# Entry
Amino acid sequence: MTRAPTIAPCSQAQYEQVDLVIRQAFGGDDEVALVRGLRADGDLQLELVAMINGRVVGHVAFSYMQAPFRSLALAPLTVSPDYQGQGLGTALCEAGIEQCKNAAWEAIFVLGHLAYYQRFGFSVNEARGYESPYAGDYFMMCQLTDGLPRQGEITHALAFSKVD
# Structure
């Protein structure tokens, strides 16, 4: 990484910068609408930004899920195209997962690239057995504590159902 980022909680004053980074990274407004919906519904439990020289260049959101245990969904993880490949996504994921552990969350679910998320402890095998519209080959779970039920129904926050 060429510049050391500052990872910090997202503030309301940064929302426009976050929208811009998400829009640039994903090439549209679906993920922007997701994050705005999660905020509006009160489902965001943790929202972090990566900043370089006082500018938001990355963002990660962890939202509440209904499950047989205290769990969150990681989505979206975003890094500005100009800063991708420099470890910002890794820094955001690691900081977020650590804060989730410290806040006594028991698991995090993600739908994403296997090789990328597996290095943070996410596993497709751990997610098998849970009923979800996202269940499949790219749906993963990271257990933050031992002894969780191996099956059950999980439901993402309502804002996910509003995104195409």
